[in-house]
Write the structure tokens for this entry.
Amino acid sequence: MAMSKRRRAQMFRYLQYGILLLALVLLIVFANWGQIKRSFFNLDTAAAMFPDVIVVALLNTVIYTVLGFAFGLVLGLILALMKLSSVGPYRWLATIYIEFFRGVPALLVFIAFGFGVPLAFQVRFDIYSTVMLALGLVGAAYMAETIRAGIQAVPKGQVEAARSLGMSQGRAMITIVIPQAFRIILPPLTNELILLTKDSSLIYILGLIGTEYELTKYGRETLSRSPSLTPILIVGLCYLIITLPLGYLSRYLERRTGGRKVPSPEASGLEVSA
Amino acid sequence: MSETETETDSDVVVDISGLTKSFGSLNVLLGIDMLVNRGEVVCIIGPSGSGKSTLLRCVNLLETPNAGSVIVNGVELTHPDADIDAARRRIGMVFQSFNLFGHLRVLENLTVAQRKVLKRGRQEATEIALANLERVGLSDKAHALPSELSGGQQQRCAIARALSMDPEVMLFDEPTSALDPELVGDVLGVMRQLADEGMTMLVVTHEMQFAREVADKVLFMDGGYVVEEGPAEQVIADPQHERTKTFLSRVLNPAHQEG
Amino acid sequence: MSGRPKYLTRPALAALAALVVVGSATACTESASAGGYVKDGALVTCTHLSYKPFQFTDDTGKVVGFDVDIVDLVAKELGRKQEIVDTPFEGITSGEDFNTGKCDLSAAGMTITDEREKVIRFSDPYFDASQALLVKKGSGIADLAALSGKEVGVQQDTTGEVYANDNKDKYGFTVRQFEDLPLLETAVRTGQISAAINDNGVLYDYVKAFPETEVTTEFDTGEQYGIGMKKDNAELANAVNKVLKEAKASKKYDEIYKKWFGKAPGESAN
């Protein structure tokens, strides 16, 4: 009765496969497929959603995401440089900003900029400005840390060589460090883009006109008029059209840069004397 | 003359006096005096931890001394008002780890500082870059990425990059220490060539034969001091101090008992 | 080797978990009906906050309002205690909240419409309402014609939204849709929209608290609120209608009305 260790392991593996298979079979047998089809796969509803779901909703999602990402990237770079600065107040300001906007739900930031700020300061932004601001402010907080790590991942020798050639610290940063830093952080930045794409679903809270609807709002509106959940499925697929390729891109870029991971921020300092 | 320039003998390119440097509680340089004249090749040798790299890095203020003065090309770099960036244009540096700019091709490596710092036009910068690449024997690598080059090729490109700024003095920080032995010769060959052409050079190195044959003056450092200084041939072949002898006998052929 | 038995590997545990999930899922599809009510001893009300003065939270965080008091009457009649659940309005108007067993009835300042009647059962009407126009004080906007080229705000899934969309082409204004009433009202104050269309009851209440806004006109849409229930819940509907009838006859209704609107019904300066 003494089975070899390997044989025993093999037996248990088969048992696991068997259990998995059984679970799958039970799921298939007991699921109410008629209901599922009615709930998720109504072709008429799906067909009626085109082309608006693409030319309005998907397009808007892309626009909002790009706006937020662009603003967030620039602001994130500034914050990263502030955090690396030798000037104390710059560092503290940057840290406060980052901790705040990373610790607060993005939805609250949207509400603040859509309603709070206009009310308090008697200003008005159009939808695109508000989205760019709100998404960008939140995105910047996340990207700042990534960018900072990227800058610190650039070997110290690069800056020394640049300075030795007579470049100022600023010139060295712009021409030598930042370009290399961005190559390093392209994979995590692409991930950030995916997150922002999903966060763009929060702008419904600002109050939208039909032409401003992004995917989630469009899906919900269609859902409220349809007997099935098909709109949710279609809209979900549209999100995947954006996020899946970005995911592949991110992994491709990671391979391209030799899988050089961004190390811990303490790895290499950046201050070069004088 | 500006505040930071001093009346010096124009033949003295590097003038260091009383240089002291510590990192925290670690005292690395304990008071160094050194002179490098125009056209001289000075080699600094010594065991690791002796402070030789630190000394070299103080010459272009990559390290800031705690005390003492550094005067290069008549400009006192340790003066509070000194324009260090401007001064560095005339000091070339070659690093142990090459430090070529990884995201730029070789030609761009050589032209980027010329254009951004010296404000040369693209045409002029490219011509100078190509001439220097020719000088180090790598004309055919102008469009390669640093990652496509061997260590020795990268180092030679680094030398060409420094030369493209038309420096008055070249600093070499253990230029061959990171190279595979068979590539060392090419780099040393380029350095030899430079010396022959009259470049003022300050070299930290372990290559004793090179030091002996190419250097005019050799400094032996140990424990933060210059222990011995003198003509290359003499210091290496016939050292006076015990510590120099001990060091050299370990570095050179151990079975070779000299002096 | 570690003490964990070799067969408790990750795939095995995952399969076990999957089994448990499937098992409980099948069990849960049977609606939890405690005699037709979703919760023992309680009458669970779905509503969408905040819709002052029909349902909103007071300073202590308790949900109060006109609708709350009306349903309390029903709960008392049934010998149950009212519990209130705050859910998105679309779940209420579509009847999904009943299908998913969230609540027994819905009271949310909800107008009786043919569209909604397709999916939920309404009680008899318990409140007369019409749409009204909320603007910034002094804006001079007193009718739809004055809104040409401007933006009008509405609340998602309301009759006001329908009214606005029906009229937008005629009068040349664009419709901006908001998630709930407070956000809609705030947007008037920030100037993001020139006017808001919503039920008169709530708008009049709002301008009391925010005098920089005003209601300049009403649109006689002849709306009536009803309490919503599951389509087949005739038993509960009968009970609700009985309570409403009695409340109106006994003046209890007027009492509640005066409590929240400051005057008895019929006295409204319309």
Observations:
- The CA atoms of residues 124 and 241 of chain C lie 6 Å apart.
- DSSP finds ten helices and twelve strands in chain C.
